[in-house]
Amino acid sequence: ISVSKKTGMAVVRNRQKRLVREFFRLHQEEFLQPFWMMFVVYQPYKNLGDLSSELLEACQRAGILVCKES
User: Fold this and answer.
1) What is the pLDDT of residues 1-26, one digit of tens each?
2) Which contacts of 14-17 are long-range, i.e. CB under 8 A and separated by 24 or more positions?
3) Which of 3, 29, 43, 67 could be stapled to 13 by a disulfide with Cβ–Cβ 3.0 to 4.6 Å?
């Protein structure tokens, strides 16, 4: 997980890394198989919901998520 210095001071960058890690912890059962991925955060996210919606969309486009049936 990489966060651009343009995002803010170290406190802000560390929070963004924690949010990405929390996303993967919450959604780890939905991934198809082990894989390597690099995430670069360029803008600060206020909460996990904002970040989660964008990461879910990106992972679905990449084809690495199991489709949940409702």
Assistant:
1) 899 899 899 999 999 999 999 998 99
2) 15/44, 16/41, 16/44, 16/45, 16/51, 17/41
3) 3
